[in-house]
Amino acid sequence: MKNHHRIKLLTSALLLALSAPLLAQDLLITNGRVLDGKGGVIDKGSVLIRAGKIESVTAGTQTANGVKVIDAGGKTIMPGLVEGHRHVIQGNPGTWLAERAPKQMQEFLDAGFTTVLSAIDAAPIIEARDRIARGDMQGPRLLTGTFIPVAGAITDGPPPEPGDPARTDPARIGGGNKAAPAIPREVIIAAVAAAKKAGYDYLKCVVNTTPGGPEIATLKLIVEEGKKVGMPTIVHAVSVKDSAAAIDAGPAMLVHTPHIGRLDEDQAALKKIVGAGIPMTSTLAVFVPHFDANNKPLFRDAQPFPFNTLSSAGQGPVNARLLWEAGITYGFGTDTTWAPKESLADELRALRLVFSPTDIVKIITINAAIATQHGKEFGSLEAGKAGDVVIIDGNPLQDSSALLHVVTTIKGGKVVFNK
């Protein structure tokens, strides 16, 4: 009987240990090629993490007492990847949280993402964020956004077509020829307050300007109200015209590369967008076909790819490079719903059209962190920053596809994936 009770106690202790969150460890990651995310390279170096923060990044094989040592075996040591624009929840939000969230959150870690900005998602994303922060669920650092409209709908036109709204974006016809109705000031103020009370981190607005419409004035109000409660405003603007207009409201981030209109033909817009000092995320792969296991080209909604939108797959990268050359802070974002590793592969395919492997390392680490307004906290391997590290089998400075070969992910000093 005593042995029976002892077995039950040991079993309970083991189950408790397995279910408890991983604690931040003191780690020394050594014997690897260190890319700091800001352009610095140490051919053979080490990263020391204590209490979840980076303590030092040094050349050579470092030693330290009382720490767990991870030998990178000559592989690449670099900052955790940052996804700056994603839509996470699919299907019923409650069902997602109960059944799919743990697996999907782990998939982000397996792909090397230690931070994910969920630009617009239902309220269960907040609970997922909080569970991860408490250690009740393993996943990337989640940043959450919710939608605030800048104008009412124009109701006398044709009804929206079913499926992904990017198939028939109003920006492709220039916003029409009629001003959209304004939303009362008090309604906007109440919406921002409600978003804050719900616990979201960001306000997300979609800007399709109409002739004489209220969009930019309303966006300014949202930005102002958001600043009062510590909520940055991020803006969807997909045409050159709308991107330049949105700049006047002073948002925190543009979440798309403009892919309708040519910046090489509008130097004033190029200068205005870059001169504002507002970062932008890429999202170039939305208009690049995603191929399934049967080699079928699909759009973001998993339906057949609309090839009448293919011009954006070319114009987006061209505009991206022009913005980059002019000095914009350009970060990584996919705006997709595919599995994290698949979305990463698609976005890399689009980025490689106009960016070097060296550029892409910066885009997917420090620049994406800056775009999310958290560049001082993570995104590079520097003393005092979060201990977010990935070990890559390959050299991303020679071939960006190496980013698809993550062997270890460390978030805040915790090993959260180890192939």
Protein topology:
Elements: H1 2-19, E1 27-35, E2 41-50, E3 53-59, E4 68-71, E5 76-79, E6 81-86, H2 93-110, E7 113-118, H3 124-134, E8 141-147, H4 185-198, E9 202-206, H5 215-228, E10 233-236, H6 240-247, E11 253-254, H7 267-275, E12 280-281, E13 290-291, E14 297-298, H8 311-326, E15 330-331, H9 340-351, H10 357-371, E16 389-392, E17 406-411, E18 414-418
Parallel strand pairs: 1-4, 1-5, 6-7, 7-8, 8-9, 9-10, 10-11, 12-15
Antiparallel strand pairs: 1-2, 2-3, 5-16, 13-14, 16-17, 17-18
Do you know the CATH architecture of the largest domain? Answer: Alpha-Beta Barrel
Q: Quick one: overall form?
A: globular
Would you tell me the overall average pLDDT?
92
> What are the segments in which pLDDT stays under 50 over at least 5 consecutive residues?
1-22
The biggest beta sheet, please?
A: 8 strands, mixed
In the CATH scheme, the class of the largest domain would be Alpha Beta
The structure class reads: alpha/beta
Count structural domains: 2
Report the strand count: 18
What is the N-to-C order of secondary-structure elements (H for helix, E for strand)?
HEEEEEEHEHEHEHEHEHEEEHEHHEEE
Summed up, the helix count is 10
Strand content: 15-25%
The CATH superfamily label of the largest domain reads Metal-dependent hydrolases
Terminus-to-terminus distance: 42 Å
Helix percentage range: 25-40%
- Over the alpha carbons, how many angstroms does the gyration radius reach? 23 Å
CATH topology-level name of the largest domain: TIM Barrel
